[in-house]
Amino acid sequence: MARDSALPPERLDEILAWLNSDRDVAASIYLQLRDGLEKIFIMNRCSDPEWLTDETFDRIAKKVVDLRQTYEGDPKLYFYGVARNLIKEDLKKVKTHASLEELEPQAIDIEFAEETADLREECLHSCLQELSAEKRDLILNYYAKEKQAKIDHRAELADRLNTSVETLRVRVYRIRNALLKCIEQCLDRKVPRK
Fold first, then answer.
1. Is 155 exposed, middle or buried (0-12, 13-18, 19+ CB in 10 A)?
2. What's the confidence (pLDDT) of residue 18?
3. How far is Cα 193 from Cα 88, in angstroms, rounded to an integer?
4. In angstroms, rounded to a whole number, what is the distance separating the alpha carbons of residues 172 and 174?
């Protein structure tokens, strides 16, 4: 999903005015909110905490003019409420995306004995070789790191490809699906299903 790098200035001004009438205090609250929201997304193991933080501010920016007039209470609580909803949305998205590790036989509903592990690995390597060099490098790079390094690495990879992290996810998802089909076909050829 393509995204502008910053809120429009007039929307940012509205958010700052809503957070506090003193612009310096509002700016401090804004920075604390950004940091706090990103930490919440990280703690909830969200797929892209930085993107979700931006999305929280984008969604609020669309409503901030009305919110300033109608919302009662601490504005920070509204931000946390939007973040909670984004966490739920992210969890639903994650359930629809398979990871490369899920290309194990359980994910493709094949029950083989321990001795077929070599066959599975052989099929994976064979299918990886059938991909174009660009796609093979992309999927192997995408899964190269773990934890926070993984998030940072994927953002860098998206930058290198001059695309958004969301677009990168879609491309990798399509490659994974092609790999999954290839592995299923390879296993069917080597060990017919009963």
1. middle
2. 93
3. 38
4. 5
